[in-house]
């Protein structure tokens, strides 16, 4: 973008804009920032932490702010419930990050929030899990909705950083190509637009992402996620090596199916059922004997989001039934 006209005067006439529903975003009272990793950086900056405990089982982009700010980090392991193995103590200037895996770990977060003072919650996989009062919690919007970027931050800090507003229009192409030419033909743009999110300064959420997020029917999106998730769970519970409490699902990110076979991912792909790996970097950070390594290679995050109905879930189950 070459020039932004900043006059406060509203333009009248001229060509029309992309037409989006006018509503309200889901977390109007939280700080609106450009990316999840930068929301994480915001917390680290205002709290002035000197070091952090991070799970081995997470995304490598979380290291970006740590490198930027020169913060020491140490990895910790998780157990078969994906709860942290607490064999360390968190000092007064240190903090501890926990990820709300697949949006299914709110109970663990409530428990940890009573146990630790300097807890940071990564709700990038748990958009619909409300932040616990006073607990530093961040969200990444692009994992749940068709936006190029955008993040929310809940913090008890009163310090506010002065920030410019981000611009998202140059990393929007995969979203519109998905509609016009299909998901496969937009995939390269998705990769490239992911790359340009790296190593950017903390900025306010772009007007474009905010406008899109303000037009979403969140009730419907959450309903569809819960309904699709339970549809899969009814059948897959008997095959799933990851045991979790499904009684309080709250708009989860995906259905985590843990199985011993590593061949299923490819078979699903052949049927145009795309299952992301969470997270390839974990294979570099861990040894083959570690549970996190096993999770990365064996856990299938099945899509259950608002785009889909039970008929789509049935298609996934029909493929799985031949393989399990
Ligand atoms: C668990 C987790 N936390 C944080 C992030 C960072 O979010 P963003 O891409 O919005 O910076 C990601 C992925 O990118 C993630 O998978």
- What does the overall shape look like? globular
How many β-strand runs? 9
Q: What topology, given as strand order, has the largest sheet? A: 1-7-6-5-4-2-3
Strand content: 5-15%
Number of helices: 11
Q: How confident overall, as mean pLDDT?
A: 96
Query: Helicity range of the residues?
Result: 25-40%
CATH topology-level fold name of the largest domain: Aspartate Aminotransferase, domain 2
CATH superfamily of the largest domain: Type I PLP-dependent aspartate aminotransferase-like (Major domain)
Bound molecules: pyridoxal-5'-phosphate
Poorly predicted ranges: none
From the alpha carbons, calculate the radius of gyration and give it in angstroms: 20 Å
Sheet/helix structural class: alpha/beta
- How would a crystallographer describe the biggest sheet? 7 strands, mixed
Number of individual domains: 2
InterPro entries: PyrdxlP-dep_Trfase (IPR015424)
Protein name: DegT/DnrJ/EryC1/StrS aminotransferase family protein
Organism: Pedobacter frigoris
């Amino acid at each position: 973008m070459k020039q932004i006209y900043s006059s406060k005067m509203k333009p009248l006439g001229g060509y029309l804009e992309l037409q989006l529903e006018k509503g309200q975003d889901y977390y109007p009272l939280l700080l609106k920032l450009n990316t999840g990793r930068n929301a994480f950086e915001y917390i680290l900056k205002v709290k002035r932490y000197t070091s952090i405990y991070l799970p081995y089982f997470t995304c490598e982009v979380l290291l970006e702010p740590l490198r930027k700010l020169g913060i020491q980090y140490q990895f910790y392991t998780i157990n078969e419930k994906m709860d942290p193995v607490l064999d360390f103590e968190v000092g007064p200037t240190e903090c501890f990050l926990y990820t709300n895996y697949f949006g299914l770990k709110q109970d663990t977060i409530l428990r940890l929030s009573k146990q630790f003072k300097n807890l940071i919650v990564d709700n990038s996989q748990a958009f619909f899990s409300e932040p616990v009062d006073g607990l530093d919690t961040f969200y990444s919007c692009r994992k749940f909705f068709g936006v190029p970027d955008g993040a929310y931050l809940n913090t008890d800090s009163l310090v506010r950083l002065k920030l410019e507003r981000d611009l998202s229009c140059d990393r929007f192409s995969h979203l519109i190509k998905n509609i016009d030419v299909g998901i496969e033909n937009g995939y390269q743009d998705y990769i490239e637009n992911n790359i340009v999110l790296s190593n950017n300064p903390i900025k306010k959420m772009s007007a474009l992402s905010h406008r899109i997020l303000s037009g979403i029917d969140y009730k419907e999106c959450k309903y569809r996620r819960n309904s699709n998730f339970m549809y899969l769970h009814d059948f897959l519970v008997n095959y799933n090596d990851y045991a979790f409490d499904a009684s309080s699902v709250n708009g989860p990110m995906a259905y985590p199916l843990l199985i011993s076979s590593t061949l299923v991912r490819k078979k699903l792909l052949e049927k145009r059922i795309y299952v992301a790996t969470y997270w390839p970097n974990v294979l570099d950070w861990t040894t083959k004997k570690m549970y996190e390594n096993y999770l990365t290679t064996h856990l299938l995050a099945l899509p259950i989001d608002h785009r889909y109905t039970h008929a789509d879930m049935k298609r996934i189950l029909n493929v799985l039934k031949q393989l399990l």
